[in-house]
UniProtKB/TrEMBL annotation:
InterPro entries: CobQ/CobB/MinD/ParA_Nub-bd_dom, MinD, P-loop_NTPase, ParA/MinD_ATPase. It comes from Hevea brasiliensis (Para rubber tree). This is CobQ/CobB/MinD/ParA nucleotide binding domain-containing protein. GO terms for cellular component: cytoplasmic side of plasma membrane; cytosol. Keywords: ATP-binding, Nucleotide-binding. One of its GO terms (biological process) is negative regulation of cell division. GO terms for molecular function: ATP binding; ATP hydrolysis activity. NCBIfam families: minD_bact (TIGR01968). Belongs to the ParA family. MinD subfamily. Pfam families: CbiA. Residues 83-300 form the CobQ/CobB/MinD/ParA nucleotide binding domain.
Length: 347
């Protein structure tokens, strides 16, 4: 059983909700509620795609009512909030996180500009289904070939979400192009006629080379995406140190691709183990085969109907990001055996 605690927790997890195998006890303000199996490390998944389905005691319309926001979250901090989404290790879900968290913020009513800072290997436009609408990039804006508003691609589904790519695929940045260009971009977005965006989200390239330094330069907060495996965690720990050296102290974490069946078999670190190493999490995203389908369709998970558990988890991570909150998962019974970091090497 896992107790989820937070100061003010929106859907899908009510305040001080206790998740067990059989039932859920909850505060009277939230009715009804559903079980989230990926938060229980003692109950493995029973299906390949975790799609939210109504229980026998509640109708589908009743469950849909639970998914409505109880209130609009209060935006903490000064605008624009410049957030870099990074990891160090490739393939952990940075771009997927950027697309889903960014659109979730837009659905909450905040204006968002997402920047794909991966030079020559951009993919954010593909995940958003905007690849055919990217005509200009930041490099062409800096060269004077187009205006900034021409390079920004507005999403037709949510007009308060815009995409900007740094460069075209398979291209190289011009000599001297670096972090100062993104600093200029942030200042230009602040003073544009359309108004200052609430969030500027930067999709950071993999690695810790020049592309990484360029992406983190204008940011004042970071979201560290990791998976519960030792290679990803070691890279995440290294990136945390580099972010702090650059002056970014507000670092949050998203644990992606969590599989409770592997946690139960002690083949994967639990979320609690990850939190002990890297700090409290902004969100926990379960492994979901629907991610591949949504990527190929250019249709982010948070737009799926009916919603998947992974999509709901991204939505809640976005809510916490707005209010600068964190997720705290506390074991209240059946605590698993304590395992150290080196136990995964056989120690």
């Amino acid at each position: 059983m896992i107790l989820i605690q937070s100061n003010d927790l929106p859907h899908p997890w009510p305040l001080n909700a206790v998740f067990s195998n059989d039932d859920i006890s909850q505060t009277p303000a939230y009715q009804p509620q559903f079980i989230l199996p990926f938060l229980n490390p003692f109950k493995p998944f029973t299906s390949i795609t975790q799609t939210l389905k109504p229980s026998k005691s509640h109708s589908y319309s009743a469950i849909q009512s639970v998914l409505q926001w109880n209130r609009k979250p209060e935006l903490a901090g000064d605008t624009p909030r410049v957030v870099v989404i990074t990891s160090g290790k490739g393939g952990v879900g940075k771009t997927t996180t950027t697309a889903n968290v960014g659109l979730s913020l837009a659905r909450l009513g905040f204006s968002v500009v997402a920047i794909d800072a991966d030079v020559g290997l951009r993919n954010l436009d593909l995940l958003l289904g905007l690849e055919n609408r990217v005509n200009y990039t930041l490099v062409e804006v800096m060269n004077g070939d187009c205006r900034l508003d021409q390079a920004l691609v507005r999403d037709k589904r949510w007009s308060n979400f815009e995409l900007l790519c740094i460069s075209k695929p398979r291209s190289k940045l011009p000599l001297g192009f670096g972090g100062k260009a993104l600093v200029w971009l942030v200042e230009a977005l602040k003073t544009r006629p359309e108004g200052c965006p609430d969030f500027i989200i930067i999709d950071c390239p993999a690695g810790i080379d020049a592309g990484f330094i360029t992406a983190i330069t204008p940011a004042n907060e970071a979201v560290l995406v990791t998976t519960p495996d030792i290679t990803s965690l070691r890279d995440a720990d290294r990136v945390t140190g580099l972010l702090e050296c650059d002056g970014i102290r507000d670092i949050k974490m998203i644990v992606n691709r969590v599989r409770t069946d592997m946690i139960k078999g002690e083949d994967m670190m639990s979320v609690l183990d990850v939190q002990e190493m890297l700090g409290l999490a902004l969100g926990v995203i379960p492994e979901d085969s629907e991610v591949i389908r949504s990527t190929n369709r250019g249709y982010p998970l948070v737009l799926n109907k009916p919603p998947t558990l992974a999509g709901l988890a991204f939505e809640q991570a976005a809510w916490r990001l707005v209010e600068q909150d964190t997720m705290k998962a506390v074991m209240v019974e059946e605590e698993p055996k304590k395992r150290g970091f080196f136990s995964f090497f056989g120690g």
